[in-house]
Amino acid sequence: MKDNPILLHIETATEVCSVALSEGKRILAVCTSNDGNSHSKNLLPFIDRLFHDAGCTIQQKSVHDRLGITLRDIDGVSVSIGPGSYTGLRIGVSTAKGIAYALNVPVMAIGTLESIANGARMRMFPDADDFIVPKGTPIVPMIDARRMEVYTAQYDENLNELSAPSALIVNEHSFDELLSKGHVIFCGNGMPKCREMLAQHEHARFAESETSAWHLLAPALRRWEAQEFADTAYFEPFYLKEYVAAKPHVKGL
Q1: For the segment 229-239, what is each residue's pLDDT rounded down to a tens digit?
Q2: Which of 149, 213, 203, 160 has the alpha carbon at shortest distance from 17?
Q3: How far from each other are the two terminal CA atoms of the chain, in whole angstroms?
Q4: Is 0.85 topped by the overall pTM?
Q5: Residues 217 and 79 sit within 8 Å (Cβ to Cβ)
Q6: 208 by DSSP, 3-state: which?
Q7: Structural domain of 72
Q8: Residues 61 and 129 in one domain
Q9: Which are the contacts of 27, defined by CB distance < 8 A and separation ≥ 6?
Q10: How far is CA 67 from CA 50, 52, 81, 213, in A?
């Protein structure tokens, strides 16, 4: 396996549509929009822009220009697989599958909560090469579900899973036991609505971090090195909850 793979990263699990291009540990370019339900419109044009320097944030422009990277040069695709928006996840996963199949490259399926936890590390410790979170400090990412419900999990400072993703209706006592042991970092787009009730705990810490494709990089490299690849033909988004169709309001349907 290549030591410094060129990877395409796709994030469509939340209201954010984002793609990124990386070489090894370096992010080369990022395209992002938080324009809600625009993933189907934006995703493919964003991927095209990555390779043409148009409308993207170029992090390593000189490297990008020198390499002359095209889509056919990528070594793999990482994609955020949920939980999250049903429609967004389907769009992202199907696009990742199509590209990987056409180019015969592997797919790394990354849990969205793991990606958000990684983004919190990067947000809170932006000057640290390895984004070091103090040992023993759990990270609790949250994805907004409805009312006071969130999709959440717990990770340690190295992104090892401490508790599996689950749906939780948050109240002021939801994390009492965890917070009694020390500092806890809460993050994700579900965190703001829970912040007021959690802020009463002196150990609660909050990381403002938008979902982004470039947060997939560290988890993707771990899977690349371990050769933990998804089955391109058969892997599916992780919805956590079954989709329930709303009752149509159009007369006659």
Answers
A1: 999 999 999 99
A2: 213
A3: 53
A4: yes
A5: no
A6: coil
A7: 6-112+211-226
A8: no
A9: 20, 21, 59, 60, 214, 217
A10: 13, 12, 30, 21
